[in-house]
Amino acid sequence: MSGAGPVSGQLAPGAAALSTAVEARGLSLTFETGDGPVEALKGVDLSIARGDFVSFIGPSGCGKTTFLRCIAGLEHPTGGSLEVNGLTPDAARRARAYGYVFQAPALLPWRTIGGNIRLPLEIMGVPKPERMARTGEVLALVGLDGFARKYPWQLSGGMQSRASIARALSFDADLLLMDEPFGALDEIVRDHLNEALLELWARTGKTVCFVTHSIPEAVFLSTRIVVMSPRPGRIADVIESPLGRERPLEIRETPEFLEVARRVREGLRAGHSYDD
Amino acid sequence: MSWLSRTALPVLAVLAAVVALWYAGAVLLNAPWERDQAARAGTEIGLAELVANTMHQDRPVLPAPHQVAAEIWETTAEKRITSKRSLVYHASITLSATLVGFALGVGLGMLLAIGIVHNRAMGLSVMPWVIASQTVPILAVAPMIIVVLYNLGVQGLLAKAAISAYLSFFPVVVAMAKGLRAPDRMALDLMATWNASPAQVFWKLRLPAALPYLFPALKVAISIALVGAIIGELPTGSQGGFGARMLNGSYYGQVLIIWSALIGAACCAAVLVGLIGLIERLVLKAMGGRAWAG
Questions:
Q1: Which residue from A25, A209, B107, B253 has the fewest beta carbons nearer than 10 Å?
Q2: CATH 3.40.50.1370 given to domain A15-97+173-270
Q3: Which of B189, B200, B293 sits opposite A123 (nearest CB)?
Q4: Model pTM greater than 0.95?
């Protein structure tokens, strides 16, 4: 395998100098299905700045997950252009430019938490001492120190989510793609993890793309909120959050917060998201 | 205590029931000969005497369990294991063919399953033939396989092992084709985001995920490998092995020899399956302990 060097050195050359992490121009993706073509994405223009926390919100079928998968090179657009760190999504994937967190933790049950976090590092050919060191670092980052030797089933759902985030962070990609990572968790655990995620984002300075269908979650976390609407999947509105980077949970009671939430709701309504 | 009540007691209860049925069967099946003898001698035979006599006939239709036990004791513990009359000697011959055939069958099954999962053409075309291969009555085909292999210069242990392999690859293919496909879309996508090579996906994801499917198949495979080895011994006129022993017993009307070989083979199968169960438990324990896929 390639990539024997230090993981941080695997970024595409010059990527750090770019100010945009993701650049989409007229992006379209049409799936051919048995019932005819489905336009999952149509004419999506979006530029995501380095260090931003961008949430994608919209009803099912609005293409938010599809857009994230396009960035990851897991789906291939049928029109328009998409650059990740100045590369094509496939090249960025090969350069291990991002960590992906799925809806479910998807931890391998036969590996310990530490073993799961080391898995991408093993695949990338990172030497063992560095693997061990990194596992310790990212576990501390998500507040799971001391759990490296536990198996996934020994952890609660929230802890498993943390572990899957730690795994996405382990190879230090500077882009974090998160597809409804907390969707299956209860409200209390979710609040807690949202706080932890903000803290982690502040500490690491990563660019985060976060798919959700919770309005409060999107407003609480993001510097920008991309409101999407379905049939065809497109961007209805992009809202720059006026909230500062310091965000205690109580911020959700403030007028500024409620104002942003109102605008998100309006954007969803304008995109006919409440029609059915 | 819990082991005793959970595992040992049910097994012993079933064993006791089998032995009781066996004795009843021995009385029923051996009684006509006793009545016949009494009629020829012109005497009446009482029920107690009849039952007692059916327990130790020289040539019973169905020997009583203790007769078989005595025969087994005589042909294992009281014979040198190199003797042609030792059941241990015959067991070793059959077992070596079984194990070689099992290894070949498992290897073949794994390779086919890997091909089926990774190659679209194989995935579409191989399975029907794998299934068809098992619809052939092996007892009818075994002599032909032996003859064909003999003409190719393969005989003895390897020829018997070929029949074992022919039977035992089947459950392995079916289970591994299922097990290697067990990882869900998300796990496969994750591997893709890390740009993992197909070999890495196989070793780090597909193979470990398939192991819980593999072990039950191995248990089936090893017991039918034993059956295959015995069948392989029937048409060859081979001098050793459970199959040869059974054939001998049937030539000379020695029902006891057939039954002791049968019981011996059953015990060997139980031990082999038990060994695989033990390995299964050790492996799955090393893979996280909790029953996570079974």
A1: B253
A2: no
A3: B200
A4: no
